[in-house]
Specification:
Elements (H helix, E strand, L loop, with lengths): L16 H4 L3 H28 L2 H10 L3 H15 L2 H14 L4 H14 L2 H7 L6 H36 L3 H10 L12 H22 L3 H41 L4 H15 L2 H13 L5 H14 L2 H8 L3 H21 L3 H20 L2 H21 L1
Length: 391
């Protein structure tokens, strides 16, 4: 049993005071409006990439066709913006436009899964001044890291080998079959009502850009930049709004269910992350609890695995406004995260692998705390940036 020092701060980051004073019904309407803008931004971005032409698409596909380059692009991009939802939504838009193919996009999505774990690891550094609390917090923060490292180490080679042997990777093929349950790409486009609904906004934004920059390549780049800016703001806004509605309930649910059993932990992490649209919120709330000795890393791990599945909701929503190809890569993301959870959570011996790795690293970091800073800086930023630059 781990010692409970009782001196670590518990989560106090409630919803912003301004949002607390806004009626709940108004915040719900605001969420609907923001989600509409989110879908419009995906459509605008897809349109911008299409307008750049086949040469641009061919060049981009060639530059990221190396799966390891794609993996590190995903890690670096997501570590910088600290949101896998943003990275995967952009990837969905690029696949929907034909700028990226599904096989090229898969390693980027896997890298985004690793990059998103940097947030809770950085949160754990806030306890670096208190050795034992830091050891527990860092273990809780990095178990998500190791889980995603292990999933990539297993499923990326499997995807590449099956792709070479059969022409289609395992995840790509399964996602393609699942996609047929939603859409027949030969006869209709997916979610046509959504595309019709967002078309007026997309047209207005394209007209605004063209009035400023004309109709050349500069206008296409500005269109993509505007789409990314709207996408970023929409995800930020919906996360804040959902957090203002759900954070206190989220903390209450975690208090009542954490540690009950692994299956319940996965379900709680999945549902709460799907609601608040951020796995970082779900996992970061657990770090101070672990630092205080209230929960152990073994109790935390199933919730983080469930949060991994819940975070795929954003990419699936992004696919609503795109083509069947966009849905295809969103389903790959869902299958990848679900397969990792099924592999590592149900059986205790497998569950113990990322837990022991996290505990081992945390023990080392507690003895030599500069290791923790090096770990974050090198694995999430320096190595991906160097390899992307060199290749």
């Amino acid at each position: 049993m781990e010692e409970d020092t009782g001196s670590a701060p518990l989560p106090t980051n409630g919803p912003p005071p301004l949002l607390q004073r806004v009626p709940a019904w108004f915040r719900i309407l605001a969420i609907v409006a923001v989600l509409y803008l989110f879908l419009a931004s995906i459509g605008l971005m897809s349109s911008g990439f299409k307008s750049m032409g086949k040469c641009f698409a061919d060049h981009l596909i060639r530059s990221t066709s190396n799966p390891f380059v794609g993996l590190f692009v995903g890690i670096l991009a997501t570590s910088i913006v600290q949101s896998s939802s943003l990275t995967t939504s952009i990837v969905v838009g690029m696949v929907a436009s034909g700028t990226l193919t599904v096989p090229v996009a898969i390693p980027i999505v896997m890298g985004a899964n690793i990059g998103t774990t940097v947030t809770n690891t950085i949160v754990s550094l806030g306890f670096i001044g208190r050795r034992e609390e830091f050891r527990r917090a860092f273990s809780c923060g990095t178990v998500h890291d190791f889980f995603n490292y292990l999933c990539v180490l297993i499923f990326l080679p499997l995807e590449l080998v099956t792709q070479r042997l059969f022409g289609t990777g395992l995840l790509e093929g399964l996602a393609g079959q699942a996609g047929h349950l939603f859409v027949d790409a030969r006869r209709t486009s997916f979610a046509k009502p959504v595309k019709i609904a967002v078309k007026p906004v997309i047209g207005a934004l394209k007209g605004l850009v063209e009035s400023v920059a004309g109709k050349g390549m500069l206008a296409h780049w500005l269109q993509v930049a505007l789409a990314v800016a709207i996408l970023f703001l929409a995800l930020w806004a919906v996360t804040r709004l959902m957090r203002s509605l759900m954070l206190s309930r989220l903390e209450s649910v975690l208090d009542r269910t954490v540690g009950r059993n692994a299956g319940l932990g996965v379900a709680v992490g999945l549902i709460l992350t799907g609601i608040v649209q951020s796995s970082s919120i779900t996992t970061s709330i657990l770090v101070p609890l672990a630092a205080a000795g209230i929960v152990t890393v073994a109790q935390v791990f199933p919730i983080t695995a469930g949060a991994n599945i819940g975070t795929t909701v954003t990419a699936l929503m992004a696919a609503l406004g795109g083509s069947p190809a966009g849905l295809h890569i969103a389903l790959v993301h869902l299958l990848f995260n679900s397969a990792g959870t099924l592999l590592f959570v149900p059986a205790r011996p497998m569950r113990n692998v990322p837990i022991r790795l996290a505990n081992g690293l945390a023990t080392l970091a507690a003895r030599h705390r500069w290791w923790a800073v090096v770990y974050v800086g090198v694995l999430f930023f320096a190595i991906p940036a160097l390899l992307v630059f060199l290749t």
